[in-house]
Amino acid sequence: MEHSVVVKLEKITKRFGPVTANENVDLLLNKGEIHALLGENGAGKSTLMNMLSGIYSPDSGSIFVHSEKVHFTSPKHAISYGIGMVHQHFKLVDSFTAKENIIAGSNKSFLAKGNKELDEIKALCKKYNLSLDLDKKVMDMSVSEKQMLEIIKVIYKGCDILILDEPTAVLTPQEVEVLFDIVRRMKEEGCAVVIITHKLHEVMALCDRVTVLRKGTTITTVEIKDTNPKHLTELMVGSETELSITRQVPQNTKVIYEANHLTVMNKEGVKMLDDVSVALRSGEILGIAGVAGSGQKELCEALVGLYPLAQGELIYEGQNITGEKPREIHKKGIAMSFVPEDRLGMGLVGSMDMVDNLLLKEYHTQTGFFLNKSSVKAKAEELVEKLSVKTPSIFHPVKMLSGGNIQKILLGREIEANPKVLITAYAVRGLDVGATHQIYDLISEQKAKGVAVMFVGEDLDVLLQLSDRIMVMCGGKVTGIVEARDTTKEEIGMMMGGKTYAN
Asked: What is the protein's membrane topology class (predicted)?
């Protein structure tokens, strides 16, 4: 084994019942490199890293760390070999300070007296250029501060092999750059870093090498200097894929639906939307940007009558529909469709098949005692064909399908209703490259038909390519509405952080 290799995975296989997550996977990780693990949703990336970090044990194959064959029995065991993982969902105690979280997660005494531990933590923060208030409680921290805390926790434990799982998913562009600087500093210090991601532009900007997984197996490992986003996409998918998003200039737009001065409160009396106004125009896509939890969910639900207003009004084609429930809105003949972020909670009933889920949209419009399923069956078959839905049958429970196919059914059902207004929340979250671009095409088709589309997204590159205008939210407020063609990712990022855009 080469001297620079710190981790070697050899023919790793892992099964969960009848499902094979990884099969004969090989991976080499070098000292002082940033290595991307790339693949479509379900390719086995997280499972593989969960084995390296001690969460799972492989069914077969070997793991070598610094040339020593190891059999990890727990994350703590992996940490003893210098391997730490920062997960998408942070493992922090909200009521503890940063310092308390760091020490509590280590082998050192939580009740240790003196400043020795504090001095050690401060030295590590300085070494890796981590700006962190050690006396601040987790409950008062931003997402990026929590992520920094998780990283310093792992380093404090003595880890020099770091795994980051989708680390930029909820960060602003400015916070992403801070994170990248930290990771580059760790590389300079000789650490090995693995990043699990699906963002190709980040892979190209940050990493030295990339290993591509497809359907649980290793396709190849390539040097970043020898590849490009199109090539990586083809490796992930297994065929040529068109990555471009065609954006047509809106024609003859007019305001279809407007919300004026919306304020909504949660059950605890906290303002989730604070004086939010927005106009949706025919033949236009309005993108909504913001760090997770900035009020996007509440805005969507308020617009479709699912979230009560404390203040404000909703006007649809000149008609005041403030306070109307979804059923009442539909009865008024208002053609509005909603694709929620919770596909199997709010969108579809997982135990039902395609036909019954399509019926949910129109059962109240049918007359007579018995529901007429024949027309709905035909619609279901049509959607399967049109959207390339992979399902054993239209009578197969939708919860048994992949995330991409579930989303196609949900979006297809809402589009089938011929809406004038289409509201989508994170329509492509967790989907693979192929399914993602199908969804973009469907949304663009609706725009071409004159539909007013609101697209809540988390990938700023996509928002800039797909949207005509972008509204940015921070802390339940609108910090700016800009023309997508005339703005930059950096400008959007500043607004996501709370800076108000001045027209």
From this structure: Peripheral membrane protein
